Amino acid sequence: MLLTLEEIKEHCRLEADFDEEDSVLDLIGRAVQQRTETYLNRKLYPYEAKIPPEDKDGICLTDDIKIAMLLLASHYYLNRTASSDFEKSDLPMGFIWNVQPYRIIPL
């Protein structure tokens, strides 16, 4: 998993020693990475990692992709139901805005 549990907790403003939901946060971290890789049509690798030569579309984690993943992780953590009583809207600098430049669209 590219996001650490500590990074997710810090972004969600949870205390580092709060461990009651670590399994949920771990699941969220893995789901966020999968969702990001699926959207980008690219495999993500750790920052400055050596990308295998056979993975021509692989990309190292950039700061803006990491921020997008943290935004998505906090969204998943704070919104655990399919619907809500409140109207929600996308933030201008949300997930798509940050990762779109790296997306490969197969033709």
From TrEMBL:
Gene3D superfamilies, alphabetized: Phage gp6-like head-tail connector protein
Pfam families referenced in this protein's UniProt entry, alphabetically: Phage_connect_1
InterPro entries tied to this protein: Phage_gp6-like_head-tail, Phage_HK97_gp6-like
Protein name, per record: Hypothetical phage protein
Species the sequence originates in: Sodalis glossinidius (strain morsitans)
